[in-house]
Amino acid sequence: MTDETTDPESNENVRAAIHMDAMAFGMGCCCLQITFQAKDVDESRFMYDQLAVLAPIMMALTASTPILRGRIADTDARWGIISESVDDRTLAERGRKDPNAPREELAGRGQRRIYKSRYDSISTYIYQGAGEELLMSDRKGGGLNMTSGLANRVLNMYNDIPVHIDEESYQQLRDAGVDPALAQHVAHLFIRDPLVVFDGAVEEVDDETQTEHWESIQSTNWQTVRWKPPPPRNSPNDPHIGWRTEFRSMEIQMTDFENAAFTAFIVLLTRVILAFDLNLYIPLSRVDANMQRAHSRNAAAKGKFFFRRHLAPLEEGDDGFGVRYTSMFSRAVNGDSTTTSSTPIRVNGNTGKEIEEEEDGSGVSLQRKTAPCAPGSDENNAYEEMTMAEIMTGKGDYFPGLIPLVQVYLDYINCDSITRKRLSLYLDFIEKRATGQLVTPATWIRDFVRSHPSYKGDSVVPDDIA
Fold first, then answer.
1. How far apart are CA 140 and CA 146, in angstroms?
2. What is the per-residue pLDDT across 94-129, written as a single tens digit (0 to 9) for each?
3. What is the DSSP letter of 395?
4. What confidence tens digit (pLDDT) does each residue in 342-389 have?
5. Which of 218, 303, 438, 440 is most buried (most C-beta within 10 Å)?
6. At what angle do helices 402-412 and 417-435 cross, to 10 degrees?
7. For residues 82 and 85, what is the distance between their CA atoms, to the nearest angstrom?
8. Is the separation of the CB atoms in 107 and 190 below 8 Å?
9. Which of these, 270, 231, 230, lies nearest to 247 by C-alpha position?
10. Quick one: which of 279, 284, 287, 273 has its CA closest to 320?
């Protein structure tokens, strides 16, 4: 509803909506989050990018939040509510006129334009790509030996949304040898101030051996996926925790079976992506569009989402194979490219030598802008709108579907019959959810309320229904 009413106490216009005046209305929501430990930093970053694409898809498939503060909403998911509940941007940071700007005590003086809340989808991909030694590794059957590493690379064209950075943090990271993709991600986190500071843990913290200050920033940037470096080990008895990626978008389900099914499915998808080196990249603007669509009523059954048509990794000979990632902010910050030469370079797949690329006026190579990411595909046509059923079960003869890929992986690892029987139950359930044979919890709750004799059709959920 968009009609405005007048608040008799304040004499101000109040938009007709579900008004929630405390952060707890957002942060009090339940969810299903899963953290994966990767074998190394590269794998954790690669999984971060791939899972970010899956985040809105899985949120729609698990949607379970149609009621807020005792009112039926016109949305099915929690994410936007939490996003608004912790959005502490100033007017200037929101792009509006701010009479109090600048504010010297705030990061960026409180006037740097910030396009998203602290709790939102990711703003930049972070995977740098396989090193040249992997790209030049042995070939089998004319292709890349995938046992040598991950061949996919993130291209600048995928990072197509504004992502402001803290320039000082970015330069510090680059000077320390951190690559542009990761430096950009971390510097983006530092455009905000920490929300929580503990007494005795400010100046007393030794940044050379402890990470409390980093965690105070990292843990209050709530994105659909979180990249988590290992904490320091201060003694041999401390647990060994590696590089991790946290998947954060799914909604909690009503039964243990449902929660177990989605947990197992995401774990299996990570194994499929890594084992077959799949490429799920689409532009982040389309990922954000998917996040908006995933909130819609009954999005799992009726919605369409942008998804990649071809999941195969780049192969030698494809445009973009071996293209090195270069931050779009490198020239703005450094006045030069982030490479040792004055122009970006790529690796010639045949000779291993570096060759120069042509650039347009933006400092991004024409090669990088036009590079496809699947054999024989035009990158502009590499993704399309698909239904949830198509994403999960396949479309035409060019997109196999995620569930069939999981089945192939289980065959590939010779999964034992007992485990396979249990996983088949999970996969059958998810397929029925995707095809609409089984409804989401949000749809079930909404239908239950609307069909209850006590419901008056006014969005109010009475106590006896609850």
1. 9
2. 889 888 888 888 888 888 888 899 889 999 999 876
3. B
4. 333 333 333 333 334 444 444 333 433 333 333 334 455 688 999 999
5. 440
6. 170
7. 5
8. yes
9. 270
10. 279
